[in-house]
Write a structure and sequence with these properties.
Blueprint (H helix, E strand, L loop, with lengths): L3 E4 L9 H14 L8 H6 L3 H11 L6 H19 L6 H10 L4 E5 L3 H10 L6 E6 H4 L6 H9 L7 E5 L2 H9 L3 E5 L7 H7 L2 E3 L2 H6 L7
Parallel strand pairs: 1-2, 1-4, 2-3, 4-5, 5-6
Length: 217
């Protein structure tokens, strides 16, 4: 029986993958440089600081990582404060979990301030007990951010469902003992492997909101 839920933000609850898939490239282009192929995929597995340091070294940018992060955040701030929307079924799933008294937490590689602001604007922040971010706890190639999210609500992995859209994140959470519920997103190209890796898989979150019993809630 699952008693807790941990949600990735971008690509799971927020329809932001198209934005993030081009952000690194757009930043490099803004500097008058040519971005490498599949740059977004490389950055996807990094924290914000790791990504900034990678860009600084790879493209010989004469700025500190902190300055790069600030400039990238400027590009993304408007999107989160005004434009990003929820993915199909997100609101319904959060409402369904809340109606059953299931505490929910966010585990995100994004800026927690901007993620919270987006959720507040979209009127879903009330469903969450807090945020654990990769900048503080490390990239999702390691389980620390999931453990941190679970601690917010005193949860244990075997009773916690982690909702993710990327293969490497699902694999990390599952190896750490969490129940994994994957959802399809354009950011993940290996959908077949994602289906095999996760305990549960859905094309949209609507499936989960209508089938909470099937995933143990």
């Amino acid at each position: 029986m699952a008693n807790f839920a941990v949600f990735d933000a971008d690509g799971v609850l927020l329809d932001s993958s198209l934005f993030w898939n081009s952000l690194g490239e757009r930043y490099i282009i803004s500097l008058g440089k040519h971005p490498e192929n599949r740059l977004s995929e490389t950055l996807n597995e990094m924290t914000i600081s790791e990504g900034a340091e990678f860009l600084r070294k790879r493209y010989d940018i004469p700025k500190t990582s902190a300055e790069i992060i600030k400039e990238i955040n400027t590009l993304s701030e408007k999107f989160y404060l005004h434009d990003v929307q929820l993915k199909n079924g997100a609101r319904e799933l959060l409402e369904a979990l809340s109606s059953r008294g299931v505490p929910a937490v966010v585990a995100t590689a994004g800026d927690p301030i901007l993620v919270k602001a987006a959720f507040e604007r979209l009127n879903v922040w009330r469903y969450f007990n807090g945020i654990a971010d990769c900048e503080k706890f490390g990239a999702k190639t390691e389980p620390s951010v999931y453990y941190a999210a679970a601690r917010i609500v005193s949860a244990v992995p075997k009773l916690t469902v982690v909702f993710e859209d990327s293969l490497f994140a699902v694999e990390t959470a599952k190896k750490a003992g969490f129940i994994t519920a994957a959802v399809a997103d354009i950011s993940e190209k290996n959908t077949y492997k994602l289906k095999l890796a996760a305990d549960f898989f859905a094309e949209e979150l609507t499936f989960y909101s209508k089938n909470l019993d099937k995933i143990g809630f």
